[in-house]
Amino acid sequence: MTPSPSRTPLKRLLDVPAPAKLNLFLHITGRRADGYHLLQSVFMLIDWCDTLQFELRHDGAISREDLTPTQLPAEDLTVRAARLLQKATGCTLGAHIGLEKNLPAEAGMGGGSSDAATCLLALNRMWGLGLTRSQLASLGLQLGADVPFFIGGRNAWVEGVGEQLTPMPLAAARFVVVKPPGGASTQSIFKSPDLKRDTKPAIIQGFAAYDADDPLKHSIQSVLESGQNDLQPVAQALCPDIGHCISWLESHGLHGRMTGSGTAVFAQMRQFHNLSDAPSNWLVRNCKNMDAHPLLDWCSG
Length: 301
Description:
This protein is an alpha+beta fold. It has nine helices and ten strands.
């Protein structure tokens, strides 16, 4: 991969966001011969973000500093993304990466994948590489199936193993996201014999209606009502806290659903709800969806 000539490298990039996503639904429609599951979903960006800092290094080294208490491995996705970009382009520059980890782990919100995507976008800019978005997305797929979505930068209808993206404009909405302390192994969920793997494939036109107040965008409610998360029953058996979160949301008149393969649960809010009675060890966050990734204009194509 040969980058196009660009500009003089930047010394630093500060306060660079890496937003989370929610799966409005998640259907498993089959399984490939190599064991990977085929899915359909709508991925939606929300305004809950990790934040990264980047300092240029001229010695080619990649280093990472955790700016919040975390237990990330030394070779986390940000470091792997930086090294992959170096290798793909032959870039001899390096970077020191500071990571402020705000998104919870094992939540199904794509935190690590979003960090990796932001790292690729930021270093492409800082090192002056000039790669296109499609080139970065091809690299990102090597790191994880969710990474191309965050590089693409738009809410999307998602198919395949997560790499087939069709932009899907969504109406503005507010959500509450609840993350209990418990986790569930993604590998255990997908290996479970109880996992439903034969949901009938759908098409966008027959799945999601347009919003009455914003006819150029799809209604969140119509998407939620048309689908479910096929992983939720298995995950809930492994982590009963998921069910407890859903029951708590129902006590407030909210319909909760698990996002992705993690244990975070979300619900759309049409009006204010006093959610101060949540257990003290649950993480509860009010969020809004986003039309586009904050770094959408950082590369072309």
